[in-house]
Amino acid sequence: MSDLKHPWLRTTLALTLLGSSLALQANVGDATALGKDLTPMGAERAGNADGSIPAWTGKWRGAPPQVKFAGPGTPYPDPYADEKPLFVITAKNMEQYSANLSEGQKALFKRYPDSFKMPVYPSHRDFRVDPDTEAAIGRNATTAKLSSDGNDALDAFGASPFPVPKNGNELILNHTMQARAITEEANYNQVVVYADNNRVLEKVNYKIYSLWSDPKQNAQSTNGVFTDFLLTTLEPVRKKGEIVVGHEFINAAAQPRQAWQYTPGQRRVRRAPTVGYDSPTGAGGFRVYDEDRLFNGATDRYDWKIIGKKEIFIPYNNYKIDSPQVSQADIINASGHINPDLMRYEKHRVWVLQATLKPSARHIYAKRTFYIDEDSWAATLADNYDARGQLWRTNMQTSVYAYDIQRFHARLGLYHDLIAGSYMVDRLLDGQTPAKLNASNFGADEFTPGNLRKLGTR
What we know:
Layout: H1 21-27, E1 87-89, H2 103-111, E2 118-120, H3 131-143, E3 145-146, E4 153-154, H4 168-176, E5 183-193, E6 199-210, E7 225-235, E8 243-249, E9 258-263, E10 268-271, E11 280-281, E12 287-288, E13 302-315, H5 328-331, E14 345-357, E15 367-373, E16 379-385, E17 391-402, E18 407-417, E19 422-429, E20 436-437, H6 449-456
Antiparallel strand pairs: 1-2, 3-4, 5-6, 5-19, 5-20, 6-7, 7-8, 8-9, 9-10, 11-12, 13-14, 14-15, 15-16, 16-17, 17-18, 18-19
């Protein structure tokens, strides 16, 4: 990578936040660097100074040659299954690695000194996304503009709109508007484990169609719809048969999420109540709507600021925890977090993004810090603070590269309440049966209130 465009690379051994947002903007280069100094996604192609983060190779598009992948709806074999941790971070040695830990990770070590640990593996940047996503990124780099209110990307479609982000609003939109699976269908479990080991479980059937991620669509054909969804509750018995259908919009601030709900006890369809921002959702109402994938939905209640870049140990290549040999009982325990031996952390460069609640806005989180992976534009860690400035919840998003769709795919969402000592695991595979990605042909009326009425009366 050119030192003229990225002079801060010469100082990465310091492993500290890299300057003010103004200085960052002056150093990130421009869209012409895509595919040259930058990868086609907008990440730095070069590795770091000491080699602990490798250069991007992008040598695998789809399944690597050493794995046997049976196809959509089957488990993703771990391409790095033979690797052993380089080291394990514990409460006893965390200070040695503190420069590469988030505040939330440090808080987990302090909250659970006898059980929380982080096995750190070799870092890899071997996967390349599909040609449609790369093409969309390239187009967006030359056409995308931020709306005057900062909440929408104009003249962009299909993938993260700002591969060379110049401010916090552009960076968060890269996360929320990243290219994902076009269709996703699965039974997912959500489990909340409280400090006294009491548990709440919900099982939900997901059907999702991401119009934004579909190369057959365009900004006009979607009518402003970002994603369609249909969620059917399968467990617990008291909620069985509840169905929610709805739409998320490309400009989530101007067009709030629309949803309709069918409740078996009432046997009728009605508009769902508030389905955004900090309304509680999921098992036990543990997390809020805009915490899905760490942040999801409208951005208008926060001021967004790029703090800089940092090298952090983040969840990455998390195939092990999805293995058919791993049960839900293996994953869940009562110590305030999941089984740490099933996690994989790697050192990667992340964008550090701070969200501060606007004085006129309301939300349970007054400040949020996100750590966004440069290679995928996905948030991997999130630290959420209450109105007193106390770190309240720290969350993690695991991921894999899905061979069949040639895109990064969000897996388990891990939500930790540091004060209460409880946690939630989202998107647990039911019986470790993977989601079907890009393998569903949803009908034109699949995601409508009319279909909801039909489904409710069956």
